[in-house]
Design a protein that fits this description.
Helix content is about 35%, strand content about 15%. By secondary structure, the chain is an alpha+beta fold. The protein has 2 domains: about 80 residues, Roll (Ubiquitin-like (UB roll)), CATH 3.10.20.30; about 80 residues, DNA polymerase, domain 1, CATH 1.10.150.120. The structure holds FE2/S2 (inorganic) cluster (FES) (2 copies). The site of one FE2/S2 (inorganic) cluster has 10 residues, from loops.
């Protein structure tokens, strides 16, 4: 009599399992490796950041690349994280709005957005902060037109954008001022470090007697 067939060998995987096999990968987010396990391959980066990794800074405003509330950087490029399959970002550097602050201190961009009255309901602001951060990384002195063009993918229903434009101008000016101050300080330091040079003929090499010199 033939042996009973191995139930495991005859089991038919459910259609769902076959079509959507779970996957695991590691995302590098804000300088930290974050493992993602048993995830559906089609999950967006926005979903994974928010729902699996607990990084709720990026917001889900439209899920279709229209509002900019979900903006993050992947390998230094600004992307709408709702449109990026998270698994494709494995091996890349992901930077979210949580990564703008240093040691709990808001970045200059975040501070300026708050100080200039750009933050009303606040929903768009994480994406706006990432866009402004990205803009100023690539263009240290954007014109108002360039700023408006950079912001055209970020929808804000509250603030009228004036505060954001002001914030960009302020941060650009502050950074330019501190770069000038730093370079002046470096120049002053270089002058101070020029070693004293003896006048011609005033210096001498002390030759040891064993080398033929005089004691
Ligand atoms: S949620 Fe991604 S662009 Fe709106
Ligand atoms: S501050 Fe409310 S949507 Fe921009």
């Amino acid at each position: 009599m033939p042996a009973d067939p191995d139930p495991a060998a005859t089991a038919v995987p459910s259609a769902g399992t076959e079509e959507h096999p779970p996957t695991s990968y590691v995302l590098r987010v804000n300088g930290t490796d974050r493992p993602v396990s048993d995830a559906w391959i089609g999950e967006s980066l926005l979903y994974v950041l928010r729902e699996r990794l607990g990084l709720a800074g990026a917001k889900d405003g439209c899920s279709q690349g229209e509002c900019g509330a979900c903006n993050v950087q992947v390998d230094g490029r600004l992307v709408a994280s709702c449109l990026v399959p998270a698994a494709t970002a494995a091996g890349s550097e992901v930077r979210t709005v949580e990564g703008l602050a240093t040691d709990g201190e808001l970045s200059d961009v975040q501070r300026a957005l708050a100080a200039c009255g750009a933050v009303q309901c606040g929903f768009c602001i994480p994406g706006m902060a990432m866009t402004v951060h990205d803009l100023l990384e690539g263009n240290h002195a954007p014109t108002e037109l360039e700023t408006r063009q950079a912001l055209c993918g970020n929808l804000c229903r509250c603030s009228g954008y004036r505060g954001v434009l002001d914030a960009v101008r302020e941060v650009a000016a502050e950074r330019a001022a501190s770069a000038t101050a730093a370079s002046e300080a470096a120049d002053a330091g270089d002058e101070a470090r020029i070693p004293h040079q003896a006048a011609p003929g005033a210096g001498s090499v002390q030759i040891h007697p064993h080398d033929g010199g005089m004691a």
